[in-house]
Design goal:
453 residues, alpha/beta, Alpha-Beta Plaits, Rossmann fold, Pantoate--beta-alanine Ligase, Chain: A,domain 2, six-stranded parallel sheet, 32% helix, elongated
């Protein structure tokens, strides 16, 4: 395969191109006919063959009508991005709403599947199309044209798995410099759950390329913690990344992240003190160090972190500001089970009995939230309401329960001042032996606890 710049021109005489066509609004067959007639009239484009239309069920998106799908073989002298611009204009003329729901109904869809034997990985275009081999509604019409799966060039692996830090750096740099892409970064330690999936989905919606890191970082584990038993279901993690549309999974060995002689660490000040920082000395040094390294390698436009680890987000917000890291740090809402328990990779450690008891974290937060809404502003009273909930569950052992200023986790006075400051309640509770520590938090009075029961 030829590695091509996104503005590469075809060889003399043009290249053969395969295109998928579809529609499920209005009169799909008529709209496709009109689009292909207009396409054939574009200088530099010749329609060589088209398949019959197939009726297919929609894939993804909201509930909607069946599609009419087909395939077209073209010959063109237009550069790939110029041909793509023609497709987009025809879609606009058909009435397509490009600001509508992702994977929603549409009056016309023209997807460039292949462009000769070139590989292009740019913001607006990836060819060969990364998902064409997974889509029966593409393969069946292509077969009508005599194009079998064996005839198609292999698409770039999605997600591509990278273990070498310098390969990650080079790939992200190429996406930006050659492809004009916005890059999203989702750092994780693996054992991915629906909370992680929500971060990947948001990154997918807001960025052109998404990097998910899967790295159990030894620097953030202390003596006697669960580094060795931390879950590492890599194949399941890879499948989830694939399902959510990640472009690259960075899964380095420890010796690649921290090679021989590596001795630099990053300390963050007040945000790292107390709470988790008090219970786990050195933890946030490890977090800040690995995130600074990942950020340096990837250079993301946006990096996504969940608010379940609220102190971690505060630490990283300070890191981002103080070191002038590129792009934007995006804070994302906590994802909860139906009963309110915050999703965590460590939830798998819980016995059935401890899992049932663990809902006290949510109930403690909810009780304090109700007290806040009744006008309670004394910190001791808010803590007392939440603390009594935890104390009533013998399976749980409270590590800490604190009210802090939401933005920077600064310590509050005895009575919360009436200055508009948001207040965050944070707690950590241990269950079982060996103990599993669960964290949770909420900003009081913000409606963050709605939905749990």
């Amino acid at each position: 395969m030829i590695e091509a710049q996104p503005d590469a021109f075809p060889r003399r005489g043009g290249v053969e191109v395969l295109v998928a066509v579809g529609a499920n609004l209005g009169d799909p067959a008529a709209q496709i006919d009109r689009a292909l007639a207009a396409l054939g009239a574009v200088p530099g484009v010749e329609v060589l063959a088209r398949s019959p239309l197939h009726t297919t069920r929609p894939v993804g998106g909201p509930s909607q009508a069946d599609f009419r799908n087909g395939a077209v073989k073209l010959r063109t002298t237009l550069p790939a991005l110029a041909l793509l611009a023609v497709f987009k204009e025809l879609e606009r003329q058909a009435g397509r709403d490009f600001d509508g729901v992702r994977d929603g109904p549409r009056p016309l869809d023209l997807d460039l599947l292949t462009y000769g034997d070139q590989r292009i990985d740019a913001r607006l275009l990836s060819v060969p199309h990364p998902r064409m081999l997974d889509r029966d509604f593409v393969l069946a019409p292509l077969a009508d044209l005599g194009v079998t799966e064996a005839d198609l060039p292999p698409a770039a692996e999605r997600p591509r798995v990278v273990a070498d830090p310098e390969e990650l750096r080079a790939t992200c740099r190429a996406w930006v410099q050659r492809g004009g892409c916005r890059v999203g970064l989702v750092p994780t330690m693996g054992a991915l759950h629906d909370g992680h999936a929500s971060l990947i989905r948001r990154a997918r919606e807001e960025c052109d390329r998404v990097v998910v890191t899967v790295f159990v970082n030894p620097l953030q584990f202390g003596a006697g913690e669960d580094l060795e038993r931390y879950p590492r279901p890599f194949e399941a993690d890879l499948a989830r990344c694939r399902a959510e549309g990640a472009d690259l999974v960075f899964a380095p060995p420890v010796e690649s992240m921290y090679p021989t002689g590596f001795c630099s660490t990053v300390d963050v000040g007040g945000e790292a003190e107390g709470l988790e920082g008090g219970e786990r000395p050195g933890h946030f040094r490890g977090v800040a160090t690995v995130v600074a390294r990942l950020w340096s390698l990837c250079g993301p436009d946006r990096a996504y972190f969940g608010q379940k680890d609220a102190q971690q987000v505060a630490v990283l917000r300070r890191l981002h500001a103080d070191l002038g890291l590129s792009g934007e740090l995006v804070e994302c809402a906590i994802v909860r089970e139906p009963d309110g328990l915050a999703l965590s990779s460590r939830n798998v450690y819980l016995s059935a009995e401890d899992r049932a008891a663990a809902v006290i974290l949510f109930h403690a937060l909810a009780a304090a939230d109700r007290a806040w809404q009744r006008g309670v502003r004394r910190v001791a009273d808010l803590l007392g309401v939440a603390g009594r909930i935890v104390a009533g569950e013998p399976r749980g052992r409270l590590d800490y329960l604190e009210c802090r200023r939401a933005e920077d986790l600064a310590v509050l006075p005895d009575v919360v001042p009436d200055d508009g400051s948001a207040v965050r309640l944070l707690l950590a509770v241990r269950f079982g032996e060996p103990s599993t520590r669960l964290l949770d938090n909420a900003v009081l009075g913000r409606g963050e606890l709605e939905g749990g029961v």
